[in-house]
Amino acid sequence: MAETTDLSKGLPSHPEKATLEGKNKFLGFWVFLAGETTMFATFFGTYLGLRNGTGSGPEAADIFSLPLVFIMTMILLTSSLTSVFAMFAMKKNQFKKMKIWMWVTVALGTAFLGFEIYEFVEYVHYGLGFTTSAFASSFYALVGLHGAHVLFGLCWISLLLIRYNKSGITLTNAPKFYVASLYWHFIDVVWIFIFTVVYLMGIGG
Amino acid sequence: MGENLSQPFEKSSMTPEEIRKINREQRIQTIAFGFMIAITLLAFIAVGADVVPGSFAIPFILGLAGIQLFLQLYYFMHLKDKDHGWPNTFIVSGIVLVIPTIVALMLLIGVTKY
Amino acid sequence: MVREATNTLQKSVLWDWLTTVDHKKLAVLYLISGTLFFLKAGLMAVFMRIQLMFPMNDFLSGQTFNEFITMHGTIMLFLAATPLLFAFMNYIVPLQIGARDVAFPFVNALGFWLFFFGGLLVSLSWFFGGAPDAGWTSYVPLASRDYGGLGIDFYVLGLQVSGIGTLVSGINFIVTIINMRAPGMTMMRMPLFCWTTLVTSILIVFAFTPLAAGLALLMLDRMFDGMFFIPGEGGNVVIWQHIFWIFGHPEVYILVLPAFGMISEIIPTFSKKRLFGYTAMVFATLIIGFLGFMVWMHHMFTVGIGPIANSVFAIATMIIGIPTGIKIFNWLFTMWGGKLTFNTAMLCASSFVPTFVLGGVTGVMLAMAPVDHLYHDTYFVVAHFHYIILGGIVLGLIGATFYWYPKMFGHKLNETLGKIMFWMFYVGFHLTFFVQHILGLIGMPRRVYTYLEDQGMDTMNMISTIGAFVMSAAIILLVINIVYSAMKSPREGGDPWDGRTLEWATPTPVPEYNFAQTPQVRSLDPLFYEKIHGDGTMKPAEPIGDIHMPNGSIYPFTISLGLFIAGFGFIMLNMENAIISPWIVIAVGGIITFGSMALHSVKEDHGYHISKETVEQMEKEVGTNG
């Protein structure tokens, strides 16, 4: 496959798609995200089917706390913005800036994960264990799966940042950073529906 | 070709015109973010303030979530840009296929007969 | 030999096959392991037929019979049909679109090894107290922690691992077909096999992810006491059925669409005509793919979801008959007035059409929700889906084997043996399954290990078993044919069938870079176009030069091995007296998997180049394409 991008003038304006490998990664990752959509939908559907099946355990409205969820939502939304900024910096070949924004993203993600763990511990204290009821199981499965995605994203982005700490933006690592940021946005998209469907509907409906 | 794949670049190939464009894009994204924060607040207020009846609040917050989904996908994840035809196809198919799944798992589980 | 100049042949044979990322070698690996699983599951079927030969037979115990029905279904669908189709998709699709390799050679290898280790994990169950026994659908509560044995754990974890493999392979095929096409190969010039591969891969992406979710729920139920399926705690058992069939129905199309594609390649070649209604075929494929997701509840008509839901899904199911009918007629019209050659491949392809129609007709019968209460869980259903799977997928696969064998292995399979095999298989198949329609209508339930005498079932069961023997003899004959042909058949050139599509423009054996120069495609059926309007060879789209190749890697193997170990660790959680703590095993597996992933991610590997001189010499050695 012939390369058509002219590299003599500097970093191309879309470094993530400048090589065939980058283009493949880009498309492949989008396809993967589309698949993730149906997987999360299955967990959402299970939760929605079982959310009234509280058995003898606590109900959603008894335990969910709006302020905590609000803080978590704000943190995750902001981390989405910082990774957007990182990608703009990458396109402009500002490596330092990109690294800083990416590390901010990681920091915010870690804070989010910390809050989530704190939240789960609190719920267990309130008597909502994983095996308490079908509602509890499906809640922990859905939100826990999201948390696992956050954790994986944090490890992935940190690994990339450490590995490429000094290398500058290259045509090899640009697609990697780009798909990692896509992944991070996708986590945010899922969270939008978690806070709406699980928490807000749990409290309000 | 293979050698310079791991080489960083001295400068960006962007013309001043392109830089202006990308900076404007960045401002638009920041505004989109502000908008997303605002509708998130609205959703939380709709549920938390206890003045809005649930029969209105639920479709309302679902609508807001839909708007946020659109903003994330089309602005933050650049689906609106060119060269995103195939990603669009896949994501939109995914979202379409998801609807019967969720409806079935939510409603058609033998509790109420439809 | 010059070929040793390339990196691949400097390795030992074993290391080469363990680390290969070449789509052609992976195809051979898929073919071999898929065949082994096919023979294993076929043997189980023969045992089951022996058990059902006489009323009140005691050849197998009820428990063993249950394990056999489960493993037969599971292996045939996940571990035999899927890899066999993947073998041809892997080998042929990059050649047909004029690509040097797939988009993600590494992921391609990963997909194979995940499938392999997943299959191994399912098969291990025999050595740990028995195979899964809840049917391939594994309905809860039968499969939940209160009733299902350890075998179900192997089912859950094994399919989870192999399912991930299928998923990543699907993504790889999609990107390959979209991004790697040769110049001039537009979407609407792609051979139909590429189209069906693309649609199948899309179905995989959207269907295997719900399966992963469902298996995760079942795993949480069985190992961590999740309450999803326990009605007393607010759970619901219908959820599993929904999730399973949201995956399960598209799975049927995942398997049958590539077979459609194979038939659509074989029939034009041996009719000496272009495929009739190419555009209609493409859109029919897309519509079948879409509708495949909208009909799953026809497997659950008797659950009691409600009349409106049943009606909607009944109608959606019947609509699938329309695009399928379009395809049937297009195949018939392709043959109409053609210069037909009836060799084994064409016999399979042409007999596929009426057999598939029979399966389709019973499918529409089953789609009628009210009557389905009569057919549900009887041998009528068994007959129906075997007409689809054997009469559709397996005939397609055998046809494709005879058709593409010379490209893959350099020689044809013996035609005389092949024709005998075909007629034995065809007669045996109808003998086995046609009577099962009637058995089902008179009320013989499926999945029951025996029946009473003098209920009008004795003769037909005997006939069915005899048919199964004839079919097995045909498969044995196929194996004999493969060995015989390997020794006796003459070597073939690149284009033994006077083919129409790009794969026949490559020399045989296909060099590891496929095309020394990427071809310029000028039409649908590009090679045929060049034979008529050009000099019979493809025009190159680029000058000859260095060819970039990916390096082999052991990480696909280790990543999959790690998941295998971790999966086994999760199963150990349910074992009574595990030797070491399951959590240690899980941790070891996790470290191997994620460590390999991290290493692969950290190490930058840009592959290597085959120099222009080597390419020229290799081309001389294999002879110019013909």
Strand order of the largest sheet of chain C: 1-2
- Name the helicity range of chain C: 55-70%
Tell me which oligomeric state these chains represent: heterotrimer
CATH topology of chain A: Four Helix Bundle (Hemerythrin (Met), subunit A)
Distance between the termini of chain A: 56 Å
Morphology call of chain C: globular
CATH topology of the largest domain in chain C: Cytochrome C Oxidase, Chain A
Summarize the amount of helix of chain A as a percent range.
over 70%
| Number of E-state strands of chain C | 4
User: What CATH architecture of the largest domain in chain C do you see?
Assistant: Up-down Bundle
Structural class given helices, strands, pairing of chain C?
mainly alpha
Domain Heme-copper oxidase subunit III family profile (chain A): 1-203
Family (chain A): Belongs to the cytochrome c oxidase subunit 3 family.
Membrane topology (chain A): Multi-pass membrane protein
Pfam families (chain A): COX3
Could you characterize the architecture of this molecule?
The complex is a heterotrimer of chains A (205), B (114) and C (626). Chain A contains six helices and no strands. By secondary structure, chain A is an all-alpha fold. Chain A has a single domain, classed as Four Helix Bundle (Hemerythrin (Met), subunit A) (Up-down Bundle). In chain A, helix 1 packs antiparallel against helix 5 (134-163) and helix 3 packs antiparallel against helix 6 (173-204). The model of chain A has no long low-confidence stretch (mean pLDDT 90). The longest helix of chain B is centred in the first third of the chain and has 33 residues, at 16-48. Chain B is mostly helical. Chain B is flat and about 65 Å long. Chain B folds into two domains: 17-81; 83-114. Helix content of chain B is 69%, strand content 0%. Chain C has 626 residues and is mainly α. Chain C is 65% helix and 2% strand. Chain C has helices at 13-19, 23-51, 62-96, 105-124, 150-179, 192-224, 238-271, 278-291, 307-319, 321-335, 344-367, 369-375, 379-409, 415-441, 458-488, 526-533, 555-572, 582-602, 612-622; strands at residues 519-520, 539-540, 547-549, 608-610. In chain C, the strands form two sheets. Chain C has a two-stranded antiparallel ribbon with strand order 1-2. A two-stranded antiparallel sheet of chain C has the order 3-4. In chain C, helix 13 packs antiparallel against helix 14 (415-441). The model of chain C is unreliable at 1-5 (pLDDT under 50). The chains are: A mainly alpha (205), B mainly alpha (114), C mainly alpha (626). Chains in contact: A-B, A-C, B-C. Chains A and B meet through helix 1, helix 3 and helix 6 of A and helix 1, helix 2 and helix 3 of B.
